[in-house]
């Protein structure tokens, strides 16, 4: 389990009432042209496996660390004639941060702006905790939908029109409970630096890497080209866990077509039982990783008897930020990633090929530009 502190959003924000929530959700749905009414628009990665890892060889990617924080869309919108700062989480719950306004480069306030990012707690020397919001994408800027632009353009707009004005605003720096930064991203050809320089010096929790394609638009929901890499032992699944009192076993469920589907039995870990005893709740969403050495207790309904299997899911944490488990298709991809066992060493062995292919693409771009220029002359 992570030893890092997770942000406490209650310290600076609160859930809004139904009416205000519907105004914000309707704005997001209409402006982004979402097809589903209650869709969380945030782009979701898929686990890296032996098939999709080839994307890194053939396309331009940026890579960043996968923070152990709280994912939130930041929605800057006027409401009641005043600039407001809203947070939207995976459960589509809307929170409002009080007395926080985002300045623009003209000293006005942002309106109809949406960025994607996560809250983290950085622990600085002297055990000083700093709450920060790390932006890793931009969806809308002052009413302009930018999701169709490439990643570099989207990040550039976030830096110039959001992060820079904040950096230059003494009022924001003095009054805001959290800092706002652009997440550090590097070209995939600098993958080694992520492991050698970035990850060892992080001041917040981390559990892997995210690879985002440069030349793709922002996708609402799961994107098959945004890749999530974790060391095999850190690949996790979010299940609903319930207790079957009649048979004295815990069950893990994932989603299939919007309905709970039994996936596996679960032998509860001490940390989970501690949480149950303190919260008086035997049903919740838990994040688990697979331990091939764990002994799991199950129940054979045909034989009406218990049995034990080697291998099972181990508890990491309760996901209070989610209200649905992973879909079966996602679980299947994660299991495939665990089976394919793409370690750090295997990933870095691809670095020379990634570098060579990147340089060839760059050379091809320059050659194409030169040919076009020659055609004009």
TrEMBL record:
Residues 234-348 form the mRNA capping enzyme C-terminal domain. The keyword rRNA-binding does not apply. Residues 44-230 form the mRNA capping enzyme adenylation domain. It is an enzyme of class 2 (transferase). One of its GO terms (cellular component) is nucleus. GO terms for biological process: 7-methylguanosine mRNA capping. GO terms for molecular function: ATP binding; GTP binding; mRNA guanylyltransferase activity; RNA polymerase II C-terminal domain binding. It comes from the Eukaryota. The keyword Transcription does not apply. It is found in: Nucleus. Keywords: GTP-binding, mRNA capping, mRNA processing, Nucleotide-binding, Nucleotidyltransferase, Nucleus, Transferase. Its EC number is 2.7.7.50. It catalyses: a 5'-end diphospho-ribonucleoside in mRNA + GTP + H(+) = a 5'-end (5'-triphosphoguanosine)-ribonucleoside in mRNA + diphosphate. InterPro entries: mRNA_cap_enzyme_adenylation, mRNA_cap_enzyme_C, mRNA_Capping_Enz/RNA_Phosphat, NA-bd_OB-fold. This is mRNA guanylyltransferase. It comes from Rozella allomycis (strain CSF55).
């Amino acid at each position: 389990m992570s030893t890092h502190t997770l942000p406490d959003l209650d310290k600076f924000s609160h859930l809004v009432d139904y009416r205000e929530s519907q105004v914000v959700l309707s704005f997001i749905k209409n402006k982004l042209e979402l097809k589903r009414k209650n869709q969380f628009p945030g782009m979701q990665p898929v686990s890296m496996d032996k098939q999709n890892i080839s994307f890194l060889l053939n396309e331009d990617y940026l890579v960043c660390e996968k923070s152990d924080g709280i994912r939130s869309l930041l929605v800057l919108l006027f409401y009641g004639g005043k600039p407001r700062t809203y947070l939207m989480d995976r459960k589509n719950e809307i929170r409002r941060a009080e007395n926080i306004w985002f300045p623009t480069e003209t000293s006005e306030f942002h309106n109809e702006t949406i960025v994607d990012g996560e809250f983290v707690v950085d622990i600085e020397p002297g055990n000083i905790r700093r709450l920060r919001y790390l932006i890793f994408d931009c969806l809308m800027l002052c009413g302009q939908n930018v999701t169709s632009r490439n990643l570099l353009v989207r990040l550039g707009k976030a830096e110039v029109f959001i992060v820079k004005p904040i950096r230059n605003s003494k009022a924001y720096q003095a009054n805001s409970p959290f800092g706002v930064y652009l997440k550090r991203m590097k070209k995939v050809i600098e993958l080694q630096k992520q492991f050698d320089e970035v990850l060892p010096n992080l001041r917040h929790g981390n559990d892997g890497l995210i690879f985002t394609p440069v030349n793709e638009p922002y996708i609402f929901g799961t994107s098959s080209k945004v890749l999530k890499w974790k060391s095999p032992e850190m690949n996790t699944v979010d299940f609903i866990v319930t207790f079957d009192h009649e048979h004295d076993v815990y069950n893990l469920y994932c989603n299939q077509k919007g309905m709970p589907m039994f996936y596996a039995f679960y032998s509860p870990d001490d940390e989970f039982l501690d949480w149950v005893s303190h919260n008086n709740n035997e049903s919740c969403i838990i994040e688990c990783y697979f331990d091939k050495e764990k002994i799991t207790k199950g129940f054979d309904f045909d034989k009406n008897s218990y049995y034990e299997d080697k291998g099972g899911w181990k508890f990491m944490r309760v996901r209070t930020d989610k209200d649905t488990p992973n879909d079966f298709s996602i679980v299947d991809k994660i299991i495939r990633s665990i089976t394919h066992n793409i370690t750090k060493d295997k990933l870095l062995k691809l670095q020379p090929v990634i570098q060579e292919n990147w340089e060839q693409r760059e050379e091809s771009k320059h050659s194409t530009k030169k040919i076009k220029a020659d055609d004009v002359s």
